[in-house]
Design a protein that fits this description.
heterodimer; A: about 350 residues; 2 domains; 12 helices; globular; B: about 290 residues; alpha/beta; Elongation Factor Tu (Ef-tu), domain 3; Rossmann fold; 3 domains; seven-stranded mixed sheet; six-stranded antiparallel sheet; 7 helices
């Protein structure tokens, strides 16, 4: 891997140079939440953000999008060709995109997802965990690949890791803005990583949890959470690895129709409903359990389906904590962790 | 992945008041030629401008040039499908799913257990087995509600009366009396009985060692049929069943058909819809 150092004073110039590669999106504070938005001025960005509400999956599978357009009785496939640079993506989200890749880029490939993935650059950024992050326990706190560039915070700039050919190209083109990292930078990088590793407040002992979890299929703890959960589906919308979608056809004019897909949530009653009225997940318990099993599915090759970003905890109106549920289910009894103290705005 | 191929409706036949049989042929002759499928696979029917739904193919790959779909009027899309006439164009994409491993079962006896609309995918197996002649014996247990609800009535009754000449034995159970059933019961008392499909197992000598069982029916039926089969010493690997779930893509992306737990997640559309009883034992929630 190639490492370079971006001094603080060159950051703005470097950021401007990214505009050559496409529209730059970055994390911006919007009220109480953060969101990836188009950036004109680098000072708009909040680079020390915790997590955005909607994960970067929104650039590749949109919340609501047209997948086909009906023209003279035939479907026409279309894809937007916007070139994007997604700046400031955290490691967990980069790992989540790799999980989405496994689904959407396996045969048959999703043409829209593939096109958008090819058309975008991912620039990662290092972060400090807050009280909800548990990515370290799942091994997703450090992105080894899946990005073009990754910026690590140093007191006087950034240590830049290069993760792809495109990343090398960017570095090459702005080589006069960058320096070779020296011993002091290495020491600072090491210090930052040490501090980061030590600041995790939540952890999950993922060893063997898949089996314990499987055995708890009929556990009473599910019943407790069935009462607690509101079934709103917020957790699905904000989850960086949730990918269910629903498809419907809409008429835009008397002669034209389009096939639209939108995010679906497994907490909706219709998620398991089939024609004739049979529902394969009729109760909220079934649906709650289905989500947790889907998120905690241990794939022998890919590992867990969850990246520990903490979004579902932050945006759950009922204050359900993912890790706490996992512990309680695995141990078969209530587990004494104080209910999350919500930050006031 | 999203695109469907145009297919022309060649024939629409009423099977029952609720179900219709659609015979389709692809407009593009090359696709018509190259479209190959296995019994038990399904296609996505694309009613352009209205939506898509998964339907299993009920014709057999041994009879080429067309595919047949048996569709029950159950909702918005199937209601629209029922309004189709000969000559209309619809979209088809697929075939999807794994289908039945017909080659593995060659030389063995087949026991098909179907309830209600479950006859549709099993008809594909039934005629594949009879057309190819590679199977020692085909036994069909068919549970139906009433005389009017019997799908493919002519075929079933023909096999019921004359099937033994090609080693095919059909047994029928019904829930609502009808004069036709009384007549049938008089003619062939061992093949027709009142009750559920599991009642057909009574007094039946099944050769569990050399048989494969194939089940399709409403979701409640599986557990009871599997229990009967296990009582008769069927090996779990010799019990096949084809399942149903909500599907939007057919290729393992939309997430609706996910079943299972942390150790074993199955997509019914791409890992199934045909599963053995081993899969049921390792993946909770399948049946």
């Amino acid at each position: 891997m190639r490492y370079s150092k971006l001094p603080k004073e060159n950051f703005e110039a470097f950021f401007k140079s990214l505009e050559k590669w496409g529209a730059v999106y970055g994390p911006v504070k919007r009220g109480r939440i953060y969101s990836f938005e188009k950036i004109k001025d680098p000072n708009e960005m909040s680079l020390n953000y915790t997590r955005t509400m909607i994960p970067p999956k929104k650039f590749f599978v949109k919340p609501r999008e047209r997948i086909l357009r009906l023209k003279d009785g035939e479907w026409v496939e279309e894809c937007d060709e916007e070139k994007k640079v997604i700046f400031g993506v955290h490691s967990c989200d980069i790992n989540a995109l790799l999980i989405l890749d496994k689904v959407y880029l396996s045969y048959p490939e999703d043409p829209l997802y593939k096109r958008r993935r090819e058309n975008s650059l991912i620039i990662g950024i290092s972060c400090m965990p807050d009280e909800l992050c548990f990515c370290k326990s799942l091994g997703t706190d450090f992105a080894m690949h899946g990005f073009d560039l990754f910026l690590h915070e140093l007191p006087d700039g950034w240590l830049v890791r290069t993760g792809s050919v495109k990343g090398h190209e960017i570095i090459w083109r702005s080589r006069e803005l960058l320096q070779e990292p020296n011993e002091a930078d290495l020491e600072n990088f090491r210090k930052f990583e040490d501090r980061r590793i030590k600041s995790f407040k939540k952890e999950l002992d993922a060893q063997g949890i898949a089996d314990l979890f499987d055995l708890a299929y009929n556990s009473d703890v599910w019943k407790k959470y069935e009462e607690l959960c509101l079934g709103c589906g917020n957790c699905n919308m904000v989850c960086p690895t949730c990918r269910c979608y629903e498809v419907c056809d809409l008429w835009t004019s008397p002669y034209e129709a389009e096939r639209v897909r939108r995010y679906d949530s497994c907490f909706m009653e219709t998620h398991g409903l089939v024609a004739g009225g049979h529902n394969f997940r009729a109760t909220r318990l079934d649906r709650f359990r289905n989500r947790y099993y889907c998120k905690s599915y241990f794939d022998p090759q890919a590992g867990f389906n969850c990246v520990g970003c903490g979004r579902c905890d932050e945006f759950c109106p009922a204050g359900i904590e993912h890790v706490k549920v996992l512990y309680e289910i695995a141990r078969g009894r209530s587990y004494n962790v104080p209910i999350l103290q919500r930050k006031s705005a | 992945m999203f695109q469907s191929f145009s297919a022309k409706v060649l024939e629409v036949r009423d099977l029952t008041p609720k179900e219709k049989l659609f015979t389709l042929r692809f407009v593009d002759p090359h696709i018509n030629e190259s479209f190959s499928y296995k019994p038990g696979q399904f296609v996505m029917v694309d009613l352009r401008g209205f939506g898509e739904f998964p339907i299993s193919i009920c014709s057999t790959p041994t009879r080429k040039g067309y595919i047949q779909l048996c569709v029950r009027r159950a909702g918005r899309l199937t209601k629209y499908m029922h309004e189709l006439r000969e000559g209309d164009i619809i979209g088809i994409r697929g075939p999807y799913g794994n289908g039945f491993p017909m080659e593995i079962m060659e030389g063995n006896k087949l026991l098909l257990v179907s309830g209600g609309l479950g006859m549709a995918p099993l008809r594909s197996v039934l005629w594949y087995a009879l057309d190819s002649g590679k199977y020692a014996e085909v036994r069909l247990f068919y549970g139906t509600r009433s005389y009017e609800d019997i799908l493919f009535r002519d075929e079933i009754f023909n096999l019921l009366q004359h099937g033994q000449y090609m080693n095919c034995y059909v047994k029928l159970s019904y829930e609502i009396d009808s004069p036709y059933f009384s007549q049938l019961e008089n003619n062939c008392p061992q093949s027709v009985c009142k009750g559920l499909v599991t009642d057909l197992f009574e007094g039946e000598k099944l050769d569990a060692e050399n048989s494969y069982a194939i089940i399709c029916g409403p979701p409640v039926m599986y557990k009871f049929v599997v229990k009967e089969l296990l009582n008769r010493n069927f090996h779990p690997g010799r019990i096949y069943m084809t399942l149903e779930r909500r599907m939007r893509c057919g290729v393992g992306k939309c997430g609706h058909c996910i079943v299972g737990t942390s150790n074993s997640i199955k997509y019914v559309c791409k890992d199934g819809p045909v599963f053995t009883y081993w899969d049921v034992l390792s993946t909770r929630g399948l049946i």
